[in-house]
Structure formats: C-alpha cells, structure tokens
Amino acid sequence: MSDTFKSGFTAIVGRPNVGKSTFMNRVIGEKIAIMSDKAQTTRNRIQGVYTDEDSQIVFIDTPGIHKPKHKLGNYMVNTAEQTLNEVDIILFMINAEEGYGRGDQFIVDRLKNVDRPVYLIINKIDRVHPDKLITLIEQYRELMEFTEIVPISALEGNNVDHLLTVIKGHLEEGPQYYPEDQITDHPERFVISEFIREKVLHLTREEIPHSIAVKIEEIDEEENGSLHIQAIIVVERKSQKGIIIGKQGSMLKEVGTRARKDIEALLGSKVFLELWVKVQKDWRNRSIDLNDFGYRE
Ligand code: GDP
Ligand code: MG
Ligand code: K
Q1: Percent of the residues in the chain that have a pLDDT greater than 70, as a whole number
Q2: Do residues 92 and 174 make contact, with C-beta atoms less than 8 angstroms apart?
Q3: Segment G5: which positions (predicted)?
Q4: β-strand 118-123 against 148-151: which pairing, if any?
Q5: Per-residue b/e over 46-78, b at no fewer than 16 CB within 10 Å?
Q6: What domains sit in the chain, N to C, each tagged with a CATH number?
Q7: H or E segment at 149?
C-alpha cells in the first residue's frame, strides 16, 4: 500500500432504469445492487465499496429522484437529496437511448443547489449512434455545468475503467473506511428482503405494484451452519395476495426458490426460506409503518 491513501464517497443519481445498479455491479463485481427492468426497485441507499491498493470509493446507489406521488415517494426524494450533500462526487447518469426528459429536469434542478462536482455519465452508448451522442452532450451542456462528461456502457463495460480513473483523480487523501472484502454496509436483512422483492416484481410482471414491502422476521443460524429465514411479503390488497401465492402456492414457491438461490450465493451458506404473504391496507401513507419496514427518517 502506498503512503497516500485516497478515499471518498460517490453518489449515483438518475432516473429509474438508466443503469445505476448495472454500473455498481460491474465495478464491485457482486450482485449487491438490485437490478430490474421495472422502475424503483432500489429504494434504500445501497453502498458498494471499491477498493484497490491506493484508493477506496464508496458508492451510494441513491433511490431515483423523481416527483413524489405519496409519502414513500417523499421519503425517497428526501433521502436522495440528503445523500447529495454528504458525498464528495456525484455521478448523474442518463440513458443515451432515451435522451432528455422531464425527469431529468427535476434532477438537474436539485443538482444546481448542490456544491459538489457533478459528472454527467451517459450510459448505454452501445445502443446509440455516435452522432446522437454528440447532440445529447450539447443538449445537456445547456442545462448546467458538469465537471466532466463521460459516456459509458455499464452493461458491456466500455469506458468504465476510464470513469473509475476519473473518479480516483478526484479523491482526496483519506482513510480506508471499509475493510477490503466489504462490499456493502447494509444489514444482510435489507439485501435479503430486496432479493425477495425483486423476484416478486419480476415473476408477477405488471400485476403487482411497487408498493409491496418485504419484512424479514427472523434469521436463525442452525447448528450445521445453514440459515433459517422467515420473511413476510406485505401487500395492500387481497387480490394481490392471491396473485403472489398463485395456483396452489406455485408462484410463492417460485419466488422462494429463486430468492433462496441468490441469498445462498450472497451469504455462502445453505438457506431455508419461509415466505408468508400479508395484507395491510395503505401502509405507504403511514409513517409508523415506514419505520417498521426499515426506512430511516
Ligand atoms: P437502475 O434503475 O438505474 O438501477 O437501472 P438498472 O441497472 O436496473 O438497469 C435497467 C436496465 O437497463 C437493465 O435491463 C439493464 O440490463 C439495462 N442496462 C443497464 N446498463 C446498460 C447498458 O450500458 N447498455 C444496455 N444496452 N443496457 C443497459
Ligand atoms: Mg437500481
Ligand atoms: K431498476
């Protein structure tokens, strides 16, 4: 290790599905951030930690900033805004294919109030013609001043190393906040609940809204080292409960099998996963329930 170790915190902001989690996963190399074709899977802050011999970057995968529709939405925006004021560098990620939209204007308005270096990351360049890229860059330059504009493909890896170098060039001398092998500081409970949530959203396609929550009731370690996990999937309507359980429990079984595999891969131990579905009306608008499900205020 060299004698001047550098470190810093980097927030990734951007509309849902621009590729924030994909980028995190490519850099960290582990399935920590949750990926989904659907928007808003990532609700809490998930940190991924990149460490090499002379630097450490702590990534914060913020919830998408967008106009809140209900209390949970408010919570998300507040968390994201707080995050922006705590970090050293902000990566504002956009989707090259979609281009500029109202969602970005909402984010830019917030970024203008933040006194941190903002990098515009144009992701999914594998999907667009270079001409379109140039137009896009000109368009975004008009909106605000960026420290640098970096086009990448998080999926294919193009220019991701360059982006890492750029971030590292911006780090100041600092401590190694996390041990080298630590890739997230989130309680395992959170990651486990997100795995389960992800499976429900994927398998039920459009039928189940993002309003579902997953609560980990218990994690017991058995004598042989395997884990017994009990979790409750909370929905708002009885019809949703029916969909998640499926014909003779087939859907819930599939959710359980897939989530269990991810959890086993994450924790490196055998898992017995027990899932329950519970109906609880309107939990999104009740603050007390937000705390109950692990949201910090
Ligand atoms: P997030 O909501 O910003 O975290 O976005 P995700 O990382 O979940 O990505 C959303 C979708 O975009 C997924 O289907 C990804 O596979 C896809 N995606 C992410 N990055 C790229 C990229 O560089 N190129 C292409 N073609 N697809 C990408
Ligand atoms: Mg995400
Ligand atoms: K997503």
Answers
A1: 75
A2: no
A3: 152-154
A4: parallel
A5: bbbbbbeeebbbbbbbbbbbbeeeebbbebbbe
A6: 6-173 (3.40.50.300), 188-292 (3.30.300.20)
A7: strand 148-151
HEC profile of 241-262: HHHHHCHHHHHHHHHHHHHHHH
Which helix (H) or strand (E) segment holds residue 271: the answer is: strand 271-279
Closest listed residue to residue 58, CA positions, set 109, 92, 21, 7: 7
Contact 269, 226 (CB under 8 A): yes
* Nearest ligand to the C-alpha atom of residue 123: 1
Of ligand 1's listed atoms, the one at least distance from the Cα of 34 is 8
Low-confidence ranges of the chain (pLDDT < 70): 1-2, 29-47, 61-80, 178-188, 206, 210-211, 282-297
Ligand 1, atom 10, lies closest to the CA of: 17
Of 13, 18, 21, 22, the one to substitute when testing ligand 1's pocket (max ligand atoms within 8 A of C-beta) is 22
- CA dihedral (13, 15, 16, 20) positive or negative: negative
CA of 17 to the centre of ligand 2 (A): 7
- pTM to 2 decimals? 0.64
- Cα of 90 to ligand 2 centre, how many Å? 16
Give the DSSP letter string of 73-112.
HHHHHHHHHHHHHH-SEEEEEEETTT---HHHHHHHHHHT
* Annotated binding residues for GTP: 14-21, 61-65, 123-126
Which residue from 199, 191, 188, 222 is spatially nearest to 275, judged by alpha carbons? 199
Question: Residue 138: which H helix or E strand, with range?
Answer: helix 130-143
Q: What is the pLDDT of residue 184?
A: 54
User: Which amino acids bring their CB within 6 angstroms of ligand 1?
Assistant: 14, 16-22, 35-37, 42, 123-124, 126-127, 153-155
